[in-house]
Design brief:
Largest sheet: 6 strands, mixed
Radius of gyration: 19 Å
CATH topology: Nucleotidyltransferase, domain 5
Number of domains: 1
Order of helices and strands: EEHHHHEHHEHEHHHE
CATH superfamily: Ribonuclease H-like superfamily/Ribonuclease H
CATH architecture: 2-Layer Sandwich
CATH class: Alpha Beta
Number of strands: 6
Helix content: 40-55%
């Protein structure tokens, strides 16, 4: 049995042609209930080590975009070096807890716009594809899960209705129908500021999206450079420091924690 925490990164609403955020990523964090307390304690301790008693305030939370871009009253006071260390610590917590399993769906928004404009909702499509991947993972391990998602007022009822439809009729978007039998109950929406595991999911989803975008940008820069060096050698000498960081963190998660994924269209 797992609790499955779901969050997204790269949501630009109806603007699917935003060149600065080409991917929508929906991430699932699967955690056995008996491991949640220890993970919560590690995240709580991390918050206290950086912010002291302020980390107990009702409006405090770890949020990937706020951490990296120094947004909000808690993170804007920290230099980039310390904010990067927070990312490192949250990824390390994830890796240290072996029971955590990660999955994600990534949709290239430009492709989706060109092929499915006005036909499908991109966030519902990402949810559809993620449910399929979760169901396949649960079947392979003979497990079940309960879904917990970050609040998003405009889509909550749609996703609840979609999951109910999948459980009755199976999924229908892809070439292969998948019966949804191992996801129990409905989708339960929570405020991320009240849930440490949801905050962790948010940060990891941000890292995955930025890692994919960074890898894409680095490859584009390498091809434009007409360098005769191997990509790895060029990367060490010329790669943008921020892009290299997220590429490395994404690779670290890929080798240790990411157990299922779907890149759409590829």
């Amino acid at each position: 049995m797992y609790l499955c925490y779901i969050d997204e990164s790269g949501n630009t609403g109806n603007n699917l042609k935003d060149v600065h955020q080409p991917y929508l990523v929906l991430t699932a964090l699967l955690v056995p209930p008996e491991n949640i307390k220890d993970i919560e304690n590690d995240i709580r301790t991390l918050g206290y080590s950086y912010f002291g008693a302020e980390s107990r305030n009702t409006d405090f939370e770890f949020h990937g975009d706020d951490i990296y871009n120094a947004r909000g009253k808690y993170f804007k006071q920290l230099p980039l070096e310390r904010r990067i260390k927070i990312f490192d610590a949250l990824v390390d917590i994830t890796i240290r807890h072996e029971a955590i399993k990660i999955g994600y769906v990534s949709i290239e928004k430009g492709y989706f716009y060109s092929k499915y404009e006005n036909k499908y909702h991109i966030q519902q499509t990402a949810f559809h594809l993620l449910i399929e991947r979760i169901e396949e993972r649960l079947k392979s391990s003979n497990s079940h899960c309960l879904l917990i998602a970050d609040e998003q007022d405009e889509l909550e009822q749609r996703l609840i209705d979609d999951l109910d439809h999948f459980k009755q009729h199976g999924t229908t978007f892809g070439y292969k129908k998948i019966e949804v039998e191992r996801i129990i109950d409905s989708v339960h929406f929570v405020q991320s500021k009240n849930n440490y595991l949801m905050q962790l999911t948010d940060v990891l989803c941000y890292v995955i999206r930025r890692g994919k975008e960074s890898n894409r940008k680095l490859l584009e820069e390498y091809e434009k450079s007409t360098s005769k060096e191997k990509f790895s050698d060029w990367l060490n000498k010329c790669g943008h420091k921020g892009h290299k960081y997220f590429q490395e963190k994404y690779s670290q998660l890929t080798f240790t924690k990411i157990k299922f994924y779907k890149n759409f269209p590829r």
